[in-house]
Amino acid sequence: MYTLRPDETTTPVMLYTQHSLVRGEVVTKQNALRINIWLRTDGVPRYLHILNPQVLVFGGSPVKAVSYSRIYFPTSEVIGFHTLPPVEEPLDYDPDEPNRMMEPVEVLLGTFVMKGKIRISTQTEVDGLPKCLILIELEDIMYTLASDEKTTTVMVYSPNKLIHGDLVTKINTRVSLLPRMSMPGYLHFLNTEVLFFGGSSPKTLAYEEYFFPTERIIGFHLAPPSSEPLDYDPNDPQEADRTLVDMNMILGAFMLKGKIRISTHADFVANLEAAHMTWLSVYDAEIVNPFLPQMAAIQVPMLLAKPTQVSFGL
Questions:
Q1: β-bridge mates for residue 167, sequence order
Q2: CB contact at 8 A, 222 and 175
Q3: Residue-wise burial string across 262-277, b where 16 or more C-beta atoms lie within 10 A, e elsewhere
Q4: How much is the pTM?
Q5: List of domains in the chain
Q6: I want to staple 58 with a disulfide (CB 3.0 to 4.6 A). Which of 3, 69, 93, 111 is the partner?
């Protein structure tokens, strides 16, 4: 059993990751700043030391509960954090501050759905970023496209979500290649359905307006039947040194069969190691979900996948 040092204290907390919920007593220095904002400080360790933790692990059916006398949890995996009642600390803002307002939001936090309020600027934009940087559903306000904007129906994959919605972009954007361009920090969707994996059965959520962090995207394509020209010309003489290879891929919660273009002068592994590409083109793709056998296969002529976030089977 761990014995606290003279300069240490514990505080009951709950922390959230993409696939788990941890409840326990976090060990900190007695002179640490308020625990609710501790993760914002420079003194946070790489691993959180938690005593008497109870862990809910999501990722299969049913959810698993495990407990330990103590654990060390990587801080980089934490996506949500708060103290447990009856612990109370002052809020991190002054209610009298100007140019700020409270906005009701619904947030997808790993495998949890959270309703609350965030503070945002009363200005339309802040530093070129959208007014609200997380998903938001407002009952009485509908987004109006600017004169230089359009929407395109797309499908976006993350490790635990499938997003189907109308993506807002500039009119001159070639949407099928958007991930290879300079994307904003968040993609802006209208009329969105989110298929959410992580519990006993997938859940479907719907939002009129939705913001999703681009760093979480691992796959992207236009929603059928929309299509755009492929990203290569089969008649280009340089294509004589390339060939299409059949490939199986695991894309988050989905299984994918398709073709990728590789050099004829090296095998697949050498091509993959040498490419160093951020986004890999996959052609003639068929996408299915093993957790939803009743879901029809998705057929697309091309999609982009993040090769560092998917696995390949030959």
A1: 152, 189
A2: yes
A3: beeeeeeeebbeeeee
A4: 0.77
A5: 8-83 (2.30.30.100), 237-313 (2.30.30)
A6: 111
